[in-house]
Amino acid sequence: MDKKLKNQIAIVTGASSGIGAGCARELAYAGATVVVNYPVPGAKAMAESVVDEIAANGGSAVSYKCDVSKEEEVQQMFSDIIGQYGTVDILINNAGLQKDAPFTEMTLEQWNYVLSVNLTGQFLCAREAIKEFLRRGVNGKSKSAGKIVCMSSVHEVIPWAGHANYAASKGGVMLMMKTIAQEFAPKKIRINSIAPGAIATPINHSAWDTQAHLQELLKLIPQKRVGQVEDVGKAAVWLSSDDSDYVNGTTLFVDGGMTLYPGFEDNG
Ligand code: NAD
User: Fold this and answer.
1) Domains of the chain, start order
2) How confident is the model at residue 1, as a pLDDT?
3) What share of the chain is helix, strand, coil (3-state, %, to 5)?
């Protein structure tokens, strides 16, 4: 197998389940040593099972507890990982959640909670990663001094009624990503996003758990299949590797065509 990320250290946030776990596996199989981040003690066992699966397949990974919305915890995580491995080469800014509510019933707590993890969490992790990339510079393992992949969503461009906090967080991720990509491209740091469509994970279980729900969901997907976490993980490997060296400040939609206005498939 081609180990495009050999000897590189990757932190994947929110990696004890879903897309984060998929990214952790694919990065590890591409040769990276992967930090499987999880937020609370209760998620440790799931994070450890991702680590064990990676090890059983010949990869290298370690779990690390850190709530990405907490500044001190994020700083401690980067400090510990850099202390242990010497540096960090790749950040997959994946942790995210939903707290849905009709807009007039959405509480400030629901609004703040989603923004604090989905947007502030990405800011805090990207800031620590970039500080390390700037300190180290290009080190011969990659053409870049560092790579960040922000996990956005098709809802960085598709409005989503009943999910104003989530859509606002992903719209925010889009312009944060582009802004810091512009700021740090001269320093050979690459920052891009992946915008998944509907990927089968715990976050959207109710959208595909029955045949009726699945058929409704497939109306929104021209490719007529729900995505799998590997679809996103493989895109994350590409965006983290030198194969995408001239790609910077871009959102890669991994959505089976969900952003192609599927309502017009049948003449509108
Ligand atoms: P998921 O619920 O399986 O994964 C989210 C992960 O984030 C969980 O492992 C959770 O423990 C972790 N997390 C939550 N709060 C955290 C915190 N404060 N600190 C650290 N980790 C925290 O769902 P998923 O679908 O795998 O979601 C992963 C990312 O993909 C999210 O950013 C989500 O918005 C995005 N996304 C998912 C889909 C989809 O269809 N599944 C579509 C578009 C975007």
Assistant:
1) 9-264 (3.40.50.720)
2) 56
3) 50, 15, 35
